[in-house]
Description:
Layout: H1 2-11, H2 27-37, H3 39-52, H4 54-77, H5 81-118, H6 125-164, H7 169-187, H8 189-198, H9 203-216, H10 218-241, H11 245-288
Helix pairs in contact: 3-5, 3-11, 4-5, 5-6, 5-8, 5-11, 6-7, 6-8, 8-9, 9-10, 10-11
Amino acid sequence: MFKNLFQKLYVGKNKDDLTVEDMPTNRFSLFGAALGVRLWPMVKMNLLFVFFISPLLFWTAYNVIVIMNVGLAALEAGEDLTNAIAQYVTVYLMGMIPCMALAGPPVAGLTYVTRNFARDEHAWLWSDFKDAMKANWKQSSAMMTLLGVVLLLFWMADSFYGAMAESSMIFGVLQYLMIVLVAIVLMSAIYTFPMMVTFDMKFGEILRTGMFMTVARLHFSVLFAALALLPFFLLLVLSAYWAFGLMVLVLYYLVWGFAFNGFLLNSYTNATFDRFTEKEEQERKAKEEVNPEDLID
């Protein structure tokens, strides 16, 4: 009796063996099937990831509270809200750079584990997470540092161009071009981290390939970036109308949000990489095939 009880607790209720018809037939069915059996592992992966990026989270939480208090004080005093919080945002972004550098290896670890989840492959949470951090700490730290510097430069340049755009349309055009360029750089992270943990490539090659794939598949890059950010913005808007909205937003990311984003984005990049590697393999085989006409003297 106890043997059957423990068996049910471990593997669930007895079910018939899987058949060929039960296997996923496309990427959508694979996404649903893999997600259905990875819910709890993703929660554990998310909690592990949150622990390792805690400096970034604490720095962000502290500055959000400071900026909110400064903004409320400026509104009560009738001061310009933008000017009041601008300097605090600059300080926050400057402090973000070392925090993001420290978060690089955990992002690589999360990417590796959720990549395996998206492939419906087994992954040891702690050992695979740790090994991926150790193997990719240089490139992941460099990538996250680059993103942090880009965000800081963007904030400073956007403030400058925004002020100058009032006197010249050229600065307004430059401002929009800069926004597009920064968006492409940030979206390239969708590809760079999966490439980092999947292929043996130099950092420069990863950057170039990530930028190329972001532009070449811009519609998908924008779509999946929007899908990854959708829960954040929905819960952020909800917090303006619901007292517990901000709490739900925080709990979502502390418990599940980061791992789900990794799973979602890796489901897309897995399909993208498979498509390109299959195309390269077909081209390689086509070149290796012997043309019968070449055998005729």
